Amino acid sequence: xxxxxxxxxxxxxIEVIDNQxxxxxNMLNQLNDVRRAHQPGTDARMGAVGDVIAELVDYTLSHFxxxxxxxxxxxxxxxxxxxxxxxxxxxxxxxxxxxxxGGEDIxxxxxxxxxxxxxxxxxxxxAAYGPSIKASMDVDVDYRRPDGWVSRSLKRxxxxxx
Length: 162
Fold this sequence. Notes:
Blueprint (H helix, E strand, L loop, with lengths): L14 H23 L5 H31 L5 H23 L5 H30 L12 H13 L1
Helix pairs in contact: 1-2, 1-4, 2-3, 2-4, 3-4
């Protein structure tokens, strides 16, 4: 399987989310690089895969929580359904983690599932909430400013995690 190439159809039009999605794609490509570089079941492969999985799971959970907070703030009508999709995905990845921690080399299977799921999720589910979130943002304001919409949301979101 080839690495995932970022393409314009994966942009949902919200820079902070698009950048997070790019980072997740890069992690999936790291997983693919590990798949190609190491023989199945070897200690080198298992160690490298474990590192990528840990980073991917941690980052994805943070990304989902951030996305969900934006959807909730925007009163996105399908917020609950979207959150359920995220919750099911987290459960599924947790099952892969459990199998991996039990010594099973799930690298190929996990990479294939993640690659399909992520691209489909971005193009369909995430693209659907884009207009609602953008409408709730003050698009005339540079949201990278310290007092901008995204900065305020990030501060609120990470304050709540403490």
